[in-house]
Structure formats: structure tokens, C-alpha cells
């Protein structure tokens, strides 16, 4: 091979390697996003805002990967070999088309699955709320800090039943029991439904708010 041919061959290998790296990066990110979706569907409640956030993050990651890579590689090829620019641009456009197609498929999938996800979340909520210990947890959550007798007064359970259910909630990490006080104090920690309810004491002064305990938007990959 002549020197120009050697240079072109090396550049071709660099281009192929760079494109493969970009493709692999996109595949890893896409797999991570779908894994997040699968985790969210099982045992979590997914809102429309959460879905839009995931899709927006996917689009930004895709554009950043292909546009940033394309700009850097275009500059390098302009200085080294004008003969490869046309080929690179064609392959780059093909990759952009593939990414656009993936985004459209994600849009269709999320649009189709959003209703089923909502129904599954509602069924999960109903199942959880039908369990006696979680019915009791809603009362503890409203009070924040309480005792066995106070819970028994506002529920249909006896003090003995309340003790049994509170022990279950304590083992699962939803409440804590302060046994150094008399009577023992029960403190609310968190609920499996992921959102704190508005306390009645906050409604009157306008300080009531909702807090998402767990972020549903994936981070950077």
C-alpha cells in the first residue's frame, strides 16, 4: 500500500471502531432504560410525568452520543482525509435514522403500556390497602407519632391486635417503636405507596404538600 492508502485504511478502522463504540454505548443506555422501566412496573406506581421524564432522558442521551461523536469525528476527518467524509456522513445519517426509529418505537410502546401500567398500579394499591397492617399504617402515617391505645381508639382493632400488626410493620421497616418511653411510642417511617399523605394539621395553614420518597427518573449511565 502507498502512504495515502495506509492512512485511509487506518482512518477507516478508526471510524469503524468509533461507530461501534457509539453503537455499544447507545445499546447499553437503552438496555438500562428498559431495565428501569421493568423495575418501575413491578411494585411501583408510574405517573405520566415519570414516563415523560424517562423518554426525555433517552432522547437527550441519544442526541448527545451521536451529535458529540459526529462533530469530533468530522473535524478529525476533515484534516486527515476528505475522501472518507462522504462515507462517514452516510453512516452517521443511517445511525441517526436508527435512533429516530427507536425513539418512535419507545413512544408507541409507552403510549400503549401506560394504561396497563396504571391499572396494575391501582390493583397493587388495592391489594396493599386490603391488608390489615397497611390499613393500620395509614392511621399511623396521619398521626406521625402515636401509641398502641391511640391507634386502637381510631381503628377497629383491640390493643392486642394493634401490637401484633405494629410489630409486623416494625420488622418491615415502616415504623419504629420507642420502648424507652411509657407508653411505648410508635413513629411512622415510610409507606410502600411511595408518597406521603397530606396531614390534616397542615391543610389549614396551606403547608400541606406531597413528597415523592423515591425518584423514578434514571440517572446518568
Q: What is the secondary structure topology, with strand pairs?
A:
Layout: H1 3-41, H2 48-80, H3 85-129, H4 132-143, E1 145-146, H5 148-154, H6 159-171, E2 175-178, E3 185-188, H7 200-203
Antiparallel strand pairs: 1-3, 2-3
Helix pairs in contact: 1-2, 1-3, 2-3, 4-6, 5-6
Question: Low-confidence runs (pLDDT<50, min 5 residues)?
Answer: 195-221
The major beta sheet can be summarized as: 3 strands, antiparallel
Termini separation (Å)?
42 Å
> What is the number of beta strands?
3
Number of domains: 2
Notable traits:
Arc Repressor Mutant, subunit A; 2 domains; three-stranded antiparallel beta sheet; 3 strands
How would you explain this protein's 3D organization?
With 221 residues, this protein is mainly alpha-helical. It has two domains: 3-128; 132-203, Orthogonal Bundle (Arc Repressor Mutant, subunit A), CATH 1.10.10.10. It contains seven helices and three strands; from the N terminus they run ααααβααββα. A hairpin with a 6-residue loop joins strand 2 (175-178) and strand 3. Residues 195-221 have low confidence and may be disordered.
